[in-house]
What does this fold into?
Amino acid sequence: MATYVLIPGAGSDSSYWQFVAPLLRAAGHDVVTPDLPCDDDSAGLAEYTDVVVDAIGDRTGLILVAQSMAGFTAPLICERVPVSLMVLVAAMVPVPGEAPGDWWANTGQRAARRAQDVADGRDPDAEFDPVSVFLHDVPPELIPAVMAGGAREQSETPFRAPWPLPAWPDVPTRFLLCRQDRLFPAAFQRRVVRDRLGITPDEMDSGHLPALAHPAELVERLERYRVGLGL
It folds into this structure.
C-alpha cells in the first residue's frame, strides 16, 4: 500500500480530486487531499508546504502528485518528508530563485498559449472563459457541479516570493503532460520540462484538469509509475 498525497493547483481545493481519490482508495491505498490556504493573503509557499506536511503526519510510502501551480510546492515538501515519488501533472516547473509570478514571462507561456489559440482557431484576445480554458473536455453533465464547488479565490501572495530551493530535490520525478492543455500547450511544456528537469514528459490526451476529465486514466498512469518503481 502506498500513500498518495494529492495537491491541487491554484484557486482549487481537495474537491479537484473527487473522482481520483476513491479510485486510489479502492485499489487499497491511503490518500491525503489537503486544502491549501489559497485564499489567505498571509499564506505563501512556506505555509502551503506546512499544511501538506501536517496532513501527511507520520505516513510513509509517499507518492506526491502535484497539479499545475503545485509544481512550486511539491519540491518543498520533498525537503521535509521522505517522498518516494513525485508526479507533476500539467505542472509549473520552477528554477531556483524564480517567483511563481515571474514563471509566466520567464518560460514564454503567454506567447505559447496565444500561438496555440490561433493554431486551434480560438480568438486569443477573447475574454477569459474558465469553461473553455479548463473544462472543455470535462463531461458536460459534470460541469455545473464542478463550477459550483472547488473554485476559490487565489491570493497573489505565493506568486511574489522567490522559490527557495537551490536545486531540484533528489527524488524520482515523473512529468505527465496533457496534450490538449489550453493553458500550458503541449509543445511549450515539452520544452520547459526538457530544459528545466532534463527529462522527457509522458503524455496523455486531456485538457489542463485530467483529474476531472479523465480520472480513470490518470489513476492508471499513477499506478503504473508506482509499480514501475516497485512501490
Remarks:
- The radius of gyration is 17 Å.
- The beta strands are 3-7, 30-32, 62-67, 83-89, 173-178, 202-204.
- The first strand starts at residue 3 and ends at 7.
- The chain has a mean pLDDT of 96.
